[in-house]
Design a protein that fits this description.
Layout lengths: L1 H28 L21 H9 L7 E2 L20 E6 L24 E5 L7 E3 L16 H4 E2 L2 E2 L10 E9 H5 L9 E2 L1 H10 L9 E5 L10 H6 L3 E2 L1 H10 L4 E4 L17 H9 L4 E3 L4 H5 L4 E6 L9 E3 L3 E4 L1
Parallel strand pairs: 7-9, 8-10, 9-11, 11-12
Antiparallel strand pairs: 1-15, 2-3, 4-12, 4-14, 5-6, 7-13, 13-15
Helix pairs in contact: 7-8
Protein name: Cyclase family protein
Keywords: Signal
Length: 331
């Protein structure tokens, strides 16, 4: 009995050491990526854009219809306030009736005047509403994409590398993968993980062609709750799996991705060591920025699967994200 106990314990110890070694080896391989576009690169896979490809895409437009893929910004909108980040706030700084005293512009106050004056302001986390994550948002082992470090490149005024102001206008062929339409539901259930097998099935069923340099948008149907049920939107977090992400990036060569949910990937993550492994993989390892909270309902209703995508991020210097208003024009 004693011998058996010692033998079992020895095996347990050996297995523990083996597991620790495997985890250590895995951690060592998960490093921030080095850009194939050179040591000065700050935009990663967006380098795949070209003037000739843009010209080719614009030449394929046969309709004047434009789909707005951006959400509205409003007080109380869903956001990352659960993590302690500031909620979207809007307030008036000037009103026609409120500028009677101290009316420096001489245009407010008196409602009988020819011209009245209204001014307002907003405050928000940069990852609010439809936005794109910059490459400095996530890092690995003290480095972000292309080996940049916070010690060398992060100040109280933000990053001087890979900041949101470096993100160019994003133009490319967009492809919509409509998972709820394939499954015959309005919205995917809470925490549903879209597997690689299912992504491939949807692509085949919806006759989609995904090429290198494309922009892939994934619909979960979650936007059904965005404007009228904040609690459901925040608690229901379906998203794409790591396996599917890797296939789209490494096998299909997509330029960037987007989704109508809060995090692109499913939450909560099954990876207990990394709350958002997809973010780390895309941003830090692959240099692939992506777009969250994309409004895809009108596009899905019209069954538009292929389109010219145009996205214009705000040029916020040093920021880890930028609000944007993407457009889709059917091809």
């Amino acid at each position: 009995m004693y011998t058996f106990y010692r033998l079992g314990r020895k095996k347990t110890v050996l297995l523990t050491f083996a597991l620790a070694a495997t985890l250590h080896a895995t951690a060592q391989t998960e490093q921030a990526g080095t850009s194939p576009w050179g040591p000065a690169d700050e935009i990663g896979t967006l380098n795949m854009m070209s003037d000739s490809n843009n010209l080719s895409l614009f030449a394929k437009i046969r309709t004047g219809k434009v789909y707005d893929l951006g959400v509205e910004y409003f007080t109380g909108m869903p956001g990352f306030t659960e993590l302690g980040d500031p909620a979207y706030q809007y307030w008036l700084t000037h009103t026609p009736r409120g500028t009677v005293v101290g009316n420096h512009t001489k245009q407010g106050g008196d409602m009988n005047r020819k011209v009245s004056y209204t001014g307002d302001a907003i405050s928000m986390y940069t990852h609010t509403g439809t936005h794109i994550d910059a490459l400095n948002h996530f890092g690995l082992h003290g480095k972000i994409w292309n080996g940049y470090t916070p010690d060398e490149h992060l100040s109280d005024r933000g990053w001087d590398k890979t900041g949101a102001e470096k993100i160019p206008p994003i133009i490319g062929k967009g492809v919509l993968i409509d998972v709820p339409a394939y499954k015959g539901v309005e919205v995917l259930p809470g925490n549903y993980v879209i597997s690689l097998e299912e992504i491939q099935q949807v692509i085949k069923a919806q006759q989609l062609q995904i090429n290198k340099g494309d922009i892939v948008l994934i619909r979960t149907g979650l936007m059904k709750y965005f404007y009228n049920d904040r609690e459901k939107f925040m608690q229901n977090s379906p998203g794409i799996s790591m396996e599917a992400l890797k296939w789209l990036v490494e096998e299909k060569g997509v330029m960037t991705l987007g989704a109508d949910n809060l995090s692109l990937e499913a939450l909560p993550s099954k990876d207990k060591s990394n709350w958002l492994p997809g973010h780390t993989y895309l941003l830090a390892q692959k240099g692939s920025m992506f777009i969250e909270l994309v409004y895809l309902e009108d596009l899905a209703k019209a069954k538009v699967r292929n389109f010219l995508f145009v996205g214009l991020p705000l040029k916020i210097r040093g920021a880890s994200a930028a609000p944007m208003r993407p457009l889709a024009i059917p091809l």
